[in-house]
Design goal:
The protein has 354 residues and is of the alpha/beta class. The protein contains twelve helices and eight strands. It folds into two domains: 245 residues, Glycogen Phosphorylase B (Rossmann fold, 3-Layer(aba) Sandwich), CATH 3.40.50.2000; 58 residues, no CATH class. The strands form two sheets. The protein has a six-stranded parallel beta sheet, sandwiched between helices. Helix 1 packs across helix 3, helix 1 packs across helix 7 and helix 2 packs across helix 10. The longest helix is centred in the middle third of the chain and has 33 residues.
Length: 354
């Protein structure tokens, strides 16, 4: 109740679902944009060390720089415990957790600009020589020449490749943040990373990337729109402590992306009213209304860990279920609430609206 009375009509927010991809396009778009994220990961982490991209999972949080309100603190705490749990179990999975939280920056870190440039040169060198390499592979299989890797790749290609690889490699750990901040020592998110031991060390199963600029498609690094980043990721994490509605998990569902929200968001409460599947619901709703932080952290940790154990068909089921939930909030369905509100207002008004 608000000021001692309940609202006459509830007007939930929605989306124009016609503007989002069809079910049959969800997987195609996921693979398309996941490929771009994997390329980014290669020049972000691989100068320092490498891991299996086929077994890498992308989590992300996206929103304003409000550490408690947006649940950034809860996400970091759960990730720290997930890191230790995956290490203890010797998991073959790697988690990349993106924090797309805009704040003031002075530009992309120079080391990342350099790594991206060298990586692009590596790709250009391969593309430039691909026809000749393909031709020599065919000739080797046809019997003209022994299957010798040096002959197939060519001395010129190998010489350039080794020189570029030497420029690519760097000894230190990957950075925690993509851009230069005003004061990295006092930044709250970076301080929490360091305090919780999320340092992007080689043996860490959970890697973190603080990306403190808007995903406009032309930021000079990823150069992807935020819907494209969402579509290429696996799981959105939005454990808000307060959210009047919370569009982001709804948008994630419209894109066929599984996500986590809470019962302190309007969207989370609306989903609970609809009813969620106990297994693979698509959009998870964790309980934050009892204000038990430790239990909330364990609930979030359980979902984050469970996702690492899912098979590809189960992940697909999650994506489809998230999309089905989002379709309940199509404006063409929700518009009836506005007609109802108008009619209530008209009947209560002293002026008869024709």
């Amino acid at each position: 109740a608000f000021y001692g009375r309940k609202p006459d009509v509830l007007l939930p927010n929605g989306l124009n679902m016609a503007a989002f991809p069809d079910v049959q396009d969800i997987t195609v778009l996921h693979r398309q944009y996941r490929k771009l994220l994997r390329e980014f990961i290669q020049y972000y982490f691989f100068p320092h060390y490498s891991f299996n991209l086929e077994k890498t999972i992308f989590y992300f949080i996206l929103g304003r720089y409000e550490v408690r309100c947006k649940g950034i603190d809860l996400f970091i705490d759960a990730l720290a415990e997930l890191n230790e749990k995956l290490k203890a179990k010797d998991s073959d999975k790697t988690i990349i957790a993106f924090f797309f939280i805009p704040t003031w920056t002075s530009g992309v870190k120079h080391q990342l600009i350099e790594s991206k440039s060298v990586y692009q040169h590596l790709r250009q060198n391969i593309n430039h020589n691909m026809d000749a390499i393909y031709d020599r592979i065919v000739r080797a299989y046809a019997g003209e020449h022994e299957f010798d890797i040096e002959w197939i790749l060519g001395k010129d290609f190998l010489g350039k490749a080794f020189a570029l690889q030497r420029r690519f490699k760097k000894p230190e750990n990957p950075p925690l943040v993509t851009h230069d901040l005003a004061d990295e020592r006092s930044d709250e998110i970076l301080s929490m990373f360091r305090k919780k031991g999320l340092l992007n060390a080689k043996d860490d199963k959970v890697k973190v990337i603080f990306y403190p600029t808007y995903l406009s498609g032309g930021d000079g690094l990823l150069n992807m729109q935020f819907y494209d980043v969402m579509a290429g990721s696996h799981l959105g994490v939005f454990p808000s402590f307060y959210e009047p509605w919370g569009y982001t998990p709804l948008e994630a569902g419209a894109l066929g992306v599984a996500s986590i929200t809470t019962d302190l968001s309007g969207y989370g409460l609306a989903l609970k009213e609809i009813g969620l599947k106990k297994k693979l619901p698509g959009t998870y709703v964790i309980d934050r209304s009892t204000f038990d932080y430790e239990r909330e952290k364990q609930d979030l940790l359980a979902i984050l860990y469970e996702y690492t154990t899912l098979e590809s068909d189960e992940r697909m089921e999650l994506r489809l279920n998230a999309n089905m939930l989002a379709k309940n909030f199509d404006w063409k369905l929700l518009v009836k609430n506005y007609f109802e509100a108008y009619e209530v207002a008209r009947l209560k008004s002293k002026v008869n609206v024709a």
